[in-house]
Amino acid sequence: MKGYSRYFWAVHFAGDLFFINIAFIVTYYIKFENLGLNDKYKYMLLIFNFVWTLTAFLLKLYDIKHIKRLDRVLFNLFKAALINGAALSAILFSLDSDSPFSRAHLYVTYAFSFGAILIWRILALQLIYFFRKSGFNYKRVILIGSGNVAKQLYDYIHRKDIFGIRLLGIFSESDISFEVKEGIKKGNFEDIEGFAIKNNIDEIYYTLPLTYTTKIKEFISFADKNMIRFKIIPDIRSFPFKRVNIDFFEDVPVITFRQEPLTDIVNQMLKRAFDIVFSFLVIILLLSWLYPLIALLIKCSSKGPVLFKQVRSGLNNEEFMCFKFRSMAQNEDADALQVTKGDTRITKIGSFLRKSSLDEMPQFINVLTGDMSVVGPRPHMLKHTEEYSALIGKYMVRQLVKPGITGAAQVQGYRGETKELKDMEGRVRADVWYIENWSLALDINLVALTVWNVIKGDEKAY
Predict the structure, then answer these.
(1) Between the chain's N and C termini, which has fewer beta carbons within 10 Å?
(2) Number of domain units in the chain
(3) What distance in Å separates the CA atoms of residue 298 and residue 264, rounded to the nearest whole number?
(4) How far apart are CA 416 and CA 459, in angstroms?
(5) 441 shares its domain with 321
(6) What is the CATH number of the domain that holds 168?
(7) Of 109, 133, 157, which residue constitutes the final position of a domain?
(8) Do 87 and 119 belong to one domain?
(9) Which of the listed residues 216, 235, 254 is the one where a domain comes to its end?
(10) 113 touches 19 (CB < 8 A)
(11) Same domain, 349 and 373
């Protein structure tokens, strides 16, 4: 039984609209003790439905590939909720004090509907799991190949029933290099056509080298004649990057070697909004009273300015002025030499500031002005950027995003002095991983880990 996957989006969409309308009506009843909406609230309900529909389809919430993975479902719902919240706020700010609409009703409806949709989506995914485990809505497929690529695809297919794929056979001219479950047909190329027709195969997955052009053409010809979809799984394990995307310029395939979530304008807006709110709160709640106190201690400990200002490498390798509380006595080597353990340049108050990471606090001003982000690769001195970019191939990838006050490298132990090249390579590796795997949840998690490291103490903080 197959063919119903393309309708799953409609089930999700209908459920979303159902809960939006239920939330609106129930909240209206609680607020006004009346189930009958007046004409103005009926108009507002239409706006709710329209804004959600527009947002959902713009963000492709109902693309089949986006509703199979729970992490993508939750992240895309969160983005949709932010956009809807912005639209709702715009509506509320446009209303005067004599507005016929209750702001409390609209806010509660927004929160209630988002929560209900979230629960509905999780429940819907579980229903799809159950549906397919019961033997419904799956595609019959066979696999051509016997090597590592075939094994990876085999493992992937059997990992979750949510994908709706039933592997019926594996065919190869050589011995299969992995264990195959009982009930799956094993054969050679001559067995493919008869088996595929007899078992009503829907798709054929080819995992052998692309150099077998004659054989590939034969398989494609057979598949086309029998209305079977033929799919090629290229071996990209030798590529320097494991996560690649394939896009098309009309009929021309274009392979992108790296996923970068922060190239998405919505993700950029989310990250910038988080940066502004978080840095503003830190500046108001902490830096406003901490700055004069630390400034006094710095002035009493040594001569020189309160802030240490240094030009560093930022987004797209553009230079910016980075701020820190001065932790060292003024010296001519500040722009060339890294701080080392037991460095005599560090003042007494400076030692405390560095161990507690309080010396980084003025960088929240850099975040607020847009030169930095709360989370991202640490900004390096210009001299180090020039030196390490010549030694480490992926070093400049760090400059594709804004530098951060903290980052994946810092919480993984790659902060502070880089005594050997492998230390910087580890930092770069962690930073590139962050760029490829960014999410707002990841930023929040890294901030929490940074706070925990400050509380428990970091041996590399000196």
Answers:
(1) N
(2) 3
(3) 42
(4) 10
(5) yes
(6) 3.40.50.720
(7) 133
(8) yes
(9) 235
(10) yes
(11) yes
d(CA 290, CA 282): 10
The amino acid sitting at 58 is L
Structure tokens at 239: 């590529």
Nearest 5 degrees, angle CA 425-CA 267-CA 310?
A: 50
Contact status, residue 389 vs residue 396, Cβ threshold 8 Å: yes
pLDDT tens-digit profile of 376-413?
999 988 888 888 888 887 888 888 899 999 999 888 88
Report which of 319, 306, 446 is spatially closest to residue 379, judged by C-alpha positions: 319
Residues 127 and 162 in one domain: no
Nearest to 184 by CA among 141, 226, 222, 219: 141
Position 249 in a domain: no
Contacts by 183-189, CB closer than 8 A, 24 or more apart: 185/142, 189/144, 189/215
Residues 1-43 pLDDT 10s: 344 455 667 778 888 889 889 988 888 888 887 777 887 888 8
Separation between Cα atoms, residue 440 and residue 75, nearest integer Å: 9
Angle between helices 70-94 and 440-456 (to 10 degrees): 100
Task: List CB contacts of 152: < 8 A, sequence separation 6 or more.
Answer: none
Q: How many residues does the chain have?
A: 462
pLDDT (tens digit per residue) in 157-193: 776 554 567 889 999 888 888 888 888 888 899 999 9
- Whether 305 and 391 map to the same domain: the answer is yes
- For 294-346, the DSSP string reads HHHHHHHHSSS-SEEEEEEE-GGG-EEEEEEE--B---TTTTT----TT-TTB
In a domain, 257, yes or no: no
